[in-house]
Amino acid sequence: MVSSIIDIESAESRALGAFETAQALTNAHTPFNVVAVLPLCNGPGDRTVRRALDTIQERHPLLRAKLEPDGSGFRFNPSTRPIPLESLDRADDSTWIEVVESELESGLDTTAGPLVRCLRIAGTEGEAVSELVLTFHHSIMDATSGTNVVRELLTACAEIDAGETPQLGPPLPLMPAEDDLVPETLPGGRRRSSIAGFLLRQLADEAVFRLRTVGGRRPPVHPQGNCRVLCRRMAEEDTTALVRACRGRRLPLNSALNGAMLVAVHRLLYDGKATLLRHLNFADLRQVLKPQVAEEHLGSYHGMLRVSVPMPAGADLWTTAAEVSERFSAGARRGDTFQSVRLSTAMMRPILRQRRQRMGTTALSYTGPARLPRRFGSIEVSSPEVFISNLTLGPEYTAQARLADGELRWNIVYLDCDMDRATADRISDEMLAVLRTGSAGGTP
């Protein structure tokens, strides 16, 4: 263990918002972590990483926070503990996969803090390849935060290795929860729908879902399960063809990815029979909050929306993608994502308490083009990977997707109680095949 002492002069704290609280409650049920892997060439040593971690921790209040009970919720309060840093030997190129699967299952010490830890996988002496693995409590981390904190960490490492003092900027304030920044008026001048209207739509959706799935397969609820991960890529040529096909159909790439995941799972887990499948999608809300939240501020500024998608026998990519796109677009026009944020704690509590049904079948977070530089001084970053813990009350098949170097890249998480590795592989193969066939003009 490499340690240091962080001197906190001023205490900052606030109550968690509804979505942050839902994530904290989920974490109390089972670890709910965001795990980022940074494969490095000419990566920094332990001393450099230690100094860089201290530097970014002094800048960001959420990197020196802990969780304390606050009535029926929690508060962020300051922790004086440094970000834990451990090192282990790198056996081979797959060592990081075992580490990630362990990190997804290993809870952070939330009551002592901080809500982040770092692990350095070091190669043998003279070996240039290493990995940094960062594990965050989900309540302090979204995709924008992850990119920012990694950029600052590696920038600090490069400056330290060059004999310089890191210059990342002044310490930042603790920002409000997104609940306090939700606008009354949506982009385009529309007022968001009422909470009552949102709840009525949720109740109607639940009634239809139960009716349409009578006698059919439902995702089973297991007493426990372990997270397993897969990394898949779609070649640049195929990715280019897919983007072109989406433009031709005036569909977002995100919708095609949602559609492919649903079609693959429908075929392989539901035998292609007519049913409804529940799908979760995530949206970055930073740019639509009032005021907007700049990317330099860490936090969980995103929303989740769940839709029930009709899957007829023989469901195809483009019909499913268009259906998903319309349902999410309709929800966005009404402001349902904001209402989902505000009610997330109330909706999560009975799910965790009753433990009778899964939140959905599939879930996807598409973060768009990668925005992380490839080089920081002499340090080279090859292909960062990000994974989020799944739980036995969550979807059966989840993924993070992004564009990097012209390729579409998937980071998939599944539970070993739901399926074995061969089944998870077949689903991922089917997703990519559906996308390739659809983009080539065949029957996907």
State the main characteristics.
single chain, about 450 residues, alpha+beta, Chloramphenicol Acetyltransferase, 7-stranded mixed sheet, 6-stranded mixed sheet, 11 helices
Task: Look at the structure and give the CATH class of the largest domain.
Answer: Alpha Beta
What is the tally of helical segments?
Answer: 11
CATH superfamily of the largest domain: Nonribosomal peptide synthetase, condensation domain
- End-to-end gap: 51 Å
* CATH topology label of the largest domain: Chloramphenicol Acetyltransferase
Oligomeric state of shown chains: single chain
Radius of gyration: 22 Å
What is the CATH architecture annotation of the largest domain? 2-Layer Sandwich
What structural class should be given to the helix and strand makeup?
Answer: alpha+beta
Let me know the number of strands. Answer: 16
Task: Give an overview of the whole structure.
This protein has 444 residues and is α+β, with helices and mostly antiparallel strands. The chain has two domains: 158 residues, Chloramphenicol Acetyltransferase; 260 residues, Nonribosomal peptide synthetase, condensation domain (Chloramphenicol Acetyltransferase). Helices cover 36% and strands 24% of the residues. It has eleven helices and 16 strands. Strands 2, 5, 6, 7, 12, 13 and 14 form a seven-stranded mixed beta sheet that branches. The radius of gyration is 22 Å and the shape is globular. The N terminus is likely disordered.
